[in-house]
From TrEMBL:
It catalyses: L-threonine + hydrogencarbonate + ATP = L-threonylcarbamoyladenylate + diphosphate + H2O. ATP binds at residues 60, 64, 118, 144, 152, 196, 232. It is found in: Cytoplasm. This is Threonylcarbamoyl-AMP synthase. Signal peptide: none annotated. It comes from Aminobacterium colombiense (strain DSM 12261 / ALA-1). One of its GO terms (cellular component) is cytoplasm. L-threonine binds at residues 37, 69, 122, 142, 182. It holds the Pfam family Sua5_C.
Length: 326
């Protein structure tokens, strides 16, 4: 299959390109597209056969649920039972990088919910994503558009490199804004539970709702995508520089070292990528992994960020990629 790659204007995506991509979605095909967080691999979320193509393309375990993307909060009623707390969160933070886990209606395929009885839903803010969902007229199931376990793609070239042969259309809308996946919270119970830290800081959520519980039990973790332990990982070892300490430091001896972070590296390195803010760090993290791979770097050392704001999500991604505890 020859993948079609279309460059699209971010703020005014070309209607004929969006129409072709939307038709592909309705026809059971796969379309990769930009969101404000990362690039998503989209299929008709109500078509079980199309959804299973996502799992095949990514090599994704079938017990890992997917997120359904919508063009309006009202449309979520098609697939989920929406409570008042969820409506408040939608009104406050949608469109944006926040995913809500809600009780699922029978119309949602088990391939989307992983048989859990709940469904993850969100409304992205990227104009290309919104245009595609509106014209397609169906909820779009879309995990990150990469091989399972790899760093999520923040530009179209990474999508093409990872899964290009398995995607019908890639919409190239440039680099994404946030660089990390959405925050996922469970709003089905008496308390709001954080299932995955992401682009929406917990501090912002707590400005409009009660305290968000940060440590879910293992059963609830299974209700969210992206919570398997080894995830977001580069092909080369990743070590974390935490509080002036580098665990497994013998691994860097005699190696070509690449460094990423905000502060200057603690020792001489061959390549370094420095960011001005935690937000910049989040936006550039996954691309930095891929850049060092291409340059033949043998070990990556990453600065452990502060846990405030986007830093909590950065810590989550770094710990999973390095296979270290938070």
């Amino acid at each position: 299959m020859k993948t079609k790659v279309y460059k699209v204007e971010r703020w005014n995506p070309e209607p004929h390109i969006i129409a072709e991509a939307a038709y592909a979605i309705r026809s059971g095909k796969l379309v990769a597209f930009p969101t404000e967080t990362v690039y998503g691999l989209g299929a008709n979320g109500l078509d079980d056969g199309a959804v299973r193509k996502i799992f095949a393309a990514k090599g994704r375990p079938g017990d890992n649920p997917l997120i359904l993307h919508f063009a309006s909060s009202e449309d979520v009623e098609q697939v989920a039972y929406v409570n008042e707390r969820a409506k408040l969160l939608m009104d406050s933070f949608w469109p944006g990088p926040l995913t809500l886990v809600l009780p699922a209606k029978p119309v949602v395929p088990n391939s989307v919910t992983a048989g859990l009885g709940t469904v993850a839903v969100r409304m992205p803010s990227h104009p290309v994503a919104m245009a595609l969902i509106k014209v397609a007229g169906v909820p779009i199931a879309a995990p990150s558009a990469n091989r399972s376990g790899r760093p999520s793609p923040t530009e179209a070239a990474s999508v093409l490199a990872d899964i290009g042969d398995d995607v019908d259309i890639i919409l190239d809308g440039g680099a994404t804004d946030v660089g990390l996946e959405s925050t996922v919270i469970d709003v089905t119970g008496p308390s709001v539970v954080l299932l995955r830290a992401g682009g929406m800081p917990v501090e912002r959520l707590e400005e409009v709702i009660e305290e968000v519980k940060l440590v879910p039990d293992e059963a609830k973790k299974k209700r969210s995508p992206g919570t398997r332990y080894r995830h977001y990982a580069p092909l080369i070892p990743l070590l974390l520089w935490k509080n002036g300490v580098l665990r497994h430091s013998p691994l860097v001896m005699g190696k070509r070292i690449g460094y990423i972070g905000i502060k200057e590296p603690p020792f001489p390195v061959e390549e370094k990528i420095l960011f001005k803010t935690p937000e910049n760090y989040a936006q550039g993290l996954f691309l930095a992994f891929r850049t060092f791979e291409k340059k033949g770097i043998e070990v990556i050392v990453a600065e452990w960020p502060n846990s405030k704001g986007i830093g909590l999500a950065l810590r989550d991604r770094l710990s999973r990629a390095a296979e270290e505890e938070l």
